[in-house]
Design goal:
It comes from Singulisphaera acidiphila (strain ATCC BAA-1392 / DSM 18658 / VKM B-2454 / MOB10). This is Arylsulfatase A family protein. Helix 2 crosses helix 7, helix 6 packs antiparallel against helix 7 and helix 10 packs parallel to helix 11. The strands form five sheets. An eight-stranded mixed sheet has the order 8-5-9-1-10-13-4-14, sandwiched between helices. Strands 2-3 form a two-stranded antiparallel ribbon. The chain is an alpha/beta fold. The protein is globular.
Length: 470
């Protein structure tokens, strides 16, 4: 389907985490995510850390629909007409590495980038491919357009939330600024799957570039200030203390209030203000906002940087709505005029910004789509495809990484001369997942447990070692 305008925005999709709004703080209802964080400490998880973790956070820039690798990061200027496309490669800051002419600012940042040109899997359906890239696993029982299910594997944020439960009220994962859903089809790979909704990441569905951008769930109601909330908190604490004293003198101790831990997490979230301030983009220097670009892509990436500064370990930025990068027709015009320029500007500025603030070493940035596009222009792999379009292609495509201990200025792997198949060792989404977990200091062999208590390995892949070695 035709790509959508990257400047489009819509409202907030509230997750269980803040679904009940401020009432959760008062004990009238409790956010699912906060409840999950409090309960997660009782889960049976093995979180052995790798020997040299570097990343504290991951920013996953997801190009929903599938970036044409052959028109961006793995160009084939010597391929025959009908394959090489309309764009020309340009030299980057690293001799010998060339990328698309419409990515000039990323070309300047090539010394920070590692481009893996041999990612490969077998799913050419958007939903199945998205699950595979966002979880590192094939979707259980995959079939064409299989929607999200609680039998799915957890996304990265959800796995981290289960393995490393927090007690500071900061969510383990935030996805923004769009929720991947089209009509009745909800894209898998966006939630906790078999780990349950208590580990779902927080979904934001609002354009940060909008003048009225505001996360209402993080704001206190009019007339209800911090001091009043603090007094309410102290009252709850006194009631809890009295209950505990009564229990100490009673032969039958009263049951502990199951909401205590969740309530404390909710208080921490709102009173600390760390996450709430991250969403206040008006606090940012206007010149920095301009550098990212005053559009949905740029401001979403800026917000991602602010969220990792606030301590959120996993932030996924969806660059567009579902299938925005699905260039079945007008491939070159769409990439040139609508998709590559804002992405180039936003991602390059993100890397510069993280490096300047000293955060790049501790923040892994991953830029990926669910697959690539057909080498031959107009070729169909089962979908209606225009003469100037490229269809889905998962046999080989490219992913770019930076920061978090990644050694930049390198290309890992080669596709064949047509950009159709790996010409060197292929790497799977499971390998990408293992790389992400290892960068965070989480052993990919960690065991998770499904709803029946059965052990399931976090990841079956192997980290891409060359990303971190000299």
């Amino acid at each position: 389907m035709a790509p959508e305008n990257p400047w489009h925005g819509s409202g907030i999709l509230r997750r269980e985490f803040l679904q009940v709004g401020f009432s959760g703080v008062l004990g009238m209802g409790l956010p699912g995510l906060l409840a999950g964080q409090a309960a997660a400490s009782n889960s049976k998880l093995d979180s052995r850390a790798s020997s040299r973790p570097r990343a504290k956070s991951v920013i996953l820039v997801f190009l929903t629909g599938g970036l044409s690798h052959i028109d961006s990061l793995d160009m084939k200027p010597d391929a025959p007409d009908g394959i090489r496309g309309e764009f020309q490669p340009i030299e980057t800051a690293v001799p010998g590495i060339r990328i698309c002419e419409h990515l000039p600012r990323l070309a300047e940042q090539a010394g920070k980038l590692a481009i893996v040109r041999t990612i490969s899997h077998g799913q050419t359906n958007h939903l199945n491919g998205t699950h595979q890239v966002l979880t590192g696993h094939s979707q259980p029982g995959a079939f064409f357009d299989k929607i999200a299910s609680r039998d799915d594997y957890p996304c990265y944020a959800s796995a981290v939330d289960a393995i490393r439960p927090r007690s500071d009220g900061v969510p383990s994962g935030v996805m923004l600024p769009t929720y991947l859903m089209e009509g009745p089809l909800t894209w898998p790979g966006q939630h906790a799957g078999f780990l349950g909704p208590k580990h779902d990441p927080w979904q934001i569905k609002q354009d940060p570039n909008s003048r009225d951008f505001r996360v209402e769930s993080l704001a206190m109601p009019s007339g209800f200030g911090v001091e009043r909330l603090q007094r309410r908190r102290e009252l709850f604490e006194e009631i809890a203390a009295q209950r505990d004293r009564l229990g100490a003198t009673s032969s039958s101790s009263p049951a502990k209030d199951p909401f205590d831990a969740q309530r404390e997490l909710a208080y921490s979230l709102i009173l600390s203000g760390k996450v709430a301030r991250a969403f206040e983009l008006e606090r940012e220097d206007p010149r920095m906002r301009d550098r990212y670009g005053r559009h949905m892509y740029g401001q979403s990436l800026l917000l991602a940087r602010r969220l990792v500064q606030a301590g959120v370990p996993l932030v996924q930025v969806n660059m567009g709505r579902v299938q925005t990068w699905d260039t079945h027709s007008n491939n070159f015009k769409t990439l040139k005029e609508r998709l590559l320029p804002p992405t180039d500007r936003g991602v390059a500025t993100l890397l510069e910004d993280l490096a300047t603030t000293g955060m790049l070493d501790e923040t892994l940035v991953v830029v990926a789509g669910e697959f690539g596009r057909t080498p031959r222009i107009g070729q169909s792999t089962g979908n209606a495809n225009g003469r100037d379009g490229r269809d889905h292609w998962a046999k080989v495509f490219s992913v770019a990484l930076a920061g978090g201990g990644v050694r930049g200025g390198q290309v890992i792997g080669q596709s064949d001369k047509m950009g159709a198949y790996p010409a060197s060792q292929a790497h799977s989404p499971a390998d990408l997942a293992a790389t992400i977990y290892q960068a965070l200091g989480i052993d990919p062999a960690t065991e998770l447990h499904d709803r029946l208590g059965r052990p399931i390995k976090l990841c079956e892949g192997a980290p891409i070692a060359r990303l971190f070695t000299a």
